[in-house]
Amino acid sequence: MAKKKQYVKILDLENEFEAGLLSRELEELDIPHEIHSLHDQAFDGLYQMLHGWGFVTAPPEKAEEIKSIYQDLLEDIASEKDEEEQDE
């Protein structure tokens, strides 16, 4: 039986939108990962408001690649937001 690789926490995610974009990009690049939400129904999202939306885990050897992809996504989001503000 093959041993499953251990995943480690790579980075924190600010919201569900970021989580979706990052997950889709990592899937397209065939990078193994898991997205974890910190939402807890018992506290009706309070924990998430205090500690962030969630985080991504992956094999440790993919950490730098995932961080780079995430940074690129954040820059793209900021760039699009700036363009929208200039159009207004």
Brief sketch in words of this structure:
Helices cover 50% and strands 17% of the residues. It has 3 helices and 3 strands. Helix 1 packs across helix 3.
Structure description:
The protein has 88 residues and is an alpha+beta fold. It has one domain. The protein contains three helices and three strands. The chain has helices spanning 16-28, 46-51, 63-87, and strands spanning 8-13, 34-37, 54-58. A three-stranded antiparallel sheet has the order 1-3-2. α1 (16-28) packs across α3 (63-87). The radius of gyration is 15 Å and the shape is globular. The chain starts with 7 loop residues before the first strand and ends with a helix. The model has no long low-confidence stretch (mean pLDDT 85).
Measured distance between first and last alpha carbons: 59 Å
Helical percentage: 40-55%
Radius of gyration, in angstroms, nearest whole number: 15 Å
Tally of structural domains: 1
| Number of H- or I-type helical stretches | 3
Low-confidence stretches: none
Strand order of the largest sheet: 1-3-2
Number of strands: 3
Strand residue percentage: 15-25%
The profile of the biggest β sheet is: 3 strands, antiparallel
Mean pLDDT, as a whole number?
85
Q: What is the N-to-C order of secondary-structure elements (H for helix, E for strand)?
A: EHEHEH
**Oligomer class:** single chain
Shape: globular
The chain-level structural class is alpha+beta
